[in-house]
Amino acid sequence: MTGPLFLGFDLSTQQLKAAVIDHSGTLQHESSVHFDRELSFGTTNGALHGEEPGEVYCPVVVWIEAVDLLMDKMKKSGVDFSAIVAVSGAAQVCTSSQE
Predict the structure, then answer these.
(1) What digits encode the pLDDT tens for the residues 66-85?
(2) Cα separation of 75 and 91, whole Å?
(3) How far apart are CA 25 and CA 52, in angstroms?
(4) 3-state SS track over 36-78
(5) pTM here?
(6) Which residues of 81-94 are buried (b: 16+ CB within 10 A; e: fewer)?
(7) How far apart are CA 20 and CA 1, in angstroms?
(8) Smallest Cα–Cα separation from 19: which of 69, 97, 96, 84?
(9) Domains present along the chain, CATH in parentheses
(10) Distance (Å, rounded) from C-alpha 57 to C-alpha 6?
């Protein structure tokens, strides 16, 4: 992997993904952390259920731990963080209401 590199994050309801591309847009690395499988917060489909009917939430600590684990995976796979010149992110949260 040679620079410049660009890092993109995608935070969804159930996982955090990262992709690293080069200047031509070629994918150089991809990693993900699935909240239910890889973290120990007891989430189901990325969320916890509250006391009220239909209440679901995801503690912020889940996202923080996911970033830590994702960065560790990237480091172990050899991503050269010093070559990253830009970072972008997107988040999509699916909600539904039960009436």
Answers:
(1) 999 999 999 999 999 999 99
(2) 23
(3) 46
(4) HHHCCCCCECCEEECCCCCCEECCHHHHHHHHHHHHHHHHHCC
(5) 0.85
(6) eebbeeeeeeeeee
(7) 10
(8) 84
(9) 5-89 (3.30.420.300)
(10) 31
